[in-house]
Amino acid sequence: MKKKLVVFSGAGISAESGVQTFRDSNGLWENHRVEDVASPQGFAKNPNMVLDFYNARRRQLREITPNKAHFILAELEEYLDVQVITQNVDDLHERAGSTQVIHLHGELKKARPVNADSEVIPWETDLNLGDFNSEGIQLRPHIVWFGEMVPEMENAIQAAAQADFFLVVGTSMSVYPAAGLIHHIPETCKIFVIDPLLENTFTNKENHFKTSATEGMDYFKSIILQTIK
């Protein structure tokens, strides 16, 4: 029986592939107010702008590839039962080979009707006004916007509760409810953190790699393989 590694990943792991982080230091997301492009109110006010914004993000995915950190996580499935829980809406974990991925905040390459989150449709191309589901309902990006429920949260909590090892990589642990996952891991679970800055009650010199995601994953892989021998 393989031990279970639960990975909680954020923007930092995709940044090294060229994916821009959620918001800049000035509080804007690629020159847009976050409220305008990541809220139900913003979509209701200007749906074309919101759709164009996510179309550009979706197009960008065709130009970027997974990086070493993504591939190492996929390789670890040979030795561990690896469950990735990500805040990222890209598909880089899957493209690197990870087989168990929970997207807390949705996925760029999927769409859903504006009136429900139960029907999710694969979507590779631009999404426009006039794109409907089979019942004639307008489609929107399958993204969890501010003020919306997180449908996958319960699945993520159940996974975290089974962890033997919990790895935080590329996230500041500041966005809730996702950041609360760490409070659901077993007391016996060993925690590891890869982040240049993050320090709090669950980091120490032994478990905190103050590096980029790619460099940190190299360190983590060597340590975790020694631990499970």
Describe the structure.
29% of the residues lie in helices and 20% in strands. The protein starts with a strand and ends with a helix. It is built from eight helices and eleven strands. The strands form three sheets. A six-stranded parallel β-sheet has the order 5-4-1-9-10-11, sandwiched between helices. A three-stranded antiparallel β-sheet has the order 7-6-8, with helices on one face. Strands 2-3 form a two-stranded antiparallel sheet. It is elongated. The protein has two domains: 140 residues, TPP-binding domain (Rossmann fold, 3-Layer(aba) Sandwich), CATH 3.40.50; 77 residues, 2-Layer Sandwich (SIR2/SIRT2 'Small Domain'), CATH 3.30.1600. Strand 6 and strand 7 form a beta hairpin. It has 229 residues and is of the alpha/beta class.
Task: Give a brief rundown of this model.
The chain is of the alpha/beta class. The protein has helices at residues 11-15, 34-37, 40-45, 47-61, 68-75, 92-96, 153-160, 213-227, and strands at residues 4-9, 28-29, 32-33, 81-86, 101-103, 106-113, 121-122, 139-143, 165-169, 190-194, 208-209. The protein has two domains: 1-19 and 66-105 and 149-229, Rossmann fold (3-Layer(aba) Sandwich), CATH 3.40.50.1220; 20-63 and 111-143, SIR2/SIRT2 'Small Domain' (2-Layer Sandwich), CATH 3.30.1600.
Give the strand order, joined by hyphens, for the main sheet: 5-4-1-9-10-11
CATH topology description of the largest domain: Rossmann fold
SSE topology string: EHEEHHHHEHEEEEHEEEH
Helix fraction?
A: 25-40%
**Total of helices:** 8
CATH architecture of the largest domain: 3-Layer(aba) Sandwich
In CATH, what is the class of the largest domain?
Alpha Beta
Question: Largest beta sheet, briefly?
Answer: 6 strands, parallel
